[in-house]
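Hi everyone,

Forwarding the result from last night's run.
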Amino acid sequence: MPQGAALHLFLSRDDRALTISKHISGNIDRLGHIDPTMEPYRSQLEMAGISVLDLTKLKSGDALNHGKFAESPDVVRLIGERLIAGQAVTDSSIGLGESLGAVAIGAGTTVGQAASTVISAPISIFDPRTRRNYGRQWLLLGNSAGNTIGAAGTVLTPAAP
């Protein structure tokens, strides 16, 4: 990844939330879901000086594979460095529609994690791996619900003009 890149793109071709988003939007590719090695993306990203971190091969505790960036120490470090350097976390041009869409995706992730946790309960009785990971599923469910509630609160809080 180029050190001086002005923009870093994190993507994962197995991100189920982006697959759903693609279908809802009329089969329009989502940037975080593209194959950066294929044209026209490869040359366009290179010409724009955008560095790409493909998270597709990372394993995730998130059933939708949408939160991989938060589970990778390298990605967290890179984001932290950008924030320390003064990069804004949000774009003030994001409208209510995009914000509500983000809340909807978060709610979908939370519902999926809840379903996974409920389905795993009886399996954890006889499967030692499921039993070992079951506490983590509850933690992920709590984090997902908290993030969704936080995002909803942000949407409902009036922005400064």
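The chain has two domains: 7-84, 96-156.

Cheers,
N.
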